[in-house]
Amino acid sequence: MAAPSPPTRQLVLATLVFAVAILSTGGAKADDPYQVLQAYGLPRGVLPQGAQGYHLDPESGHFDVSLASQCDVAAGSHTVRYEASVSGTIANGSLSDLNGVAVEFIFWIPISRVKKEDGNLIFTVGPARETFPVSTFQNSPACM
Fold it and tell me: Which one of 82, 125, 136, 139 is most buried, counting C-beta atoms within 10 A?
């Protein structure tokens, strides 16, 4: 499998960061999931525009984020898909056990983990990992 193009990496990263933001409030109540992401040191651009709500269990880190509907985001020659409900587990600087986020190559491959490390976001997609600069995700992408 060829490495994803930089825009694809941005979408993958945005999806993972989105999940991390939702999970990483550490018990502090934020007004929206974008603030949660920022509270955990993640850029708001890991989540697409239009998040309507979230729930975070501060003890376990389990989170759920709600979108108005399924959302596809362009990522170079690929598409990243956010389901209407995205869930996972958040800890400071990482999202794991993600559900509801996938990238299209020849077929849809789930994004399972996002980790922030040394100014980069590392996305785990199937057996592969892709790294993107955090600065690439400063703005939330619009749904197509």
Answer: 82
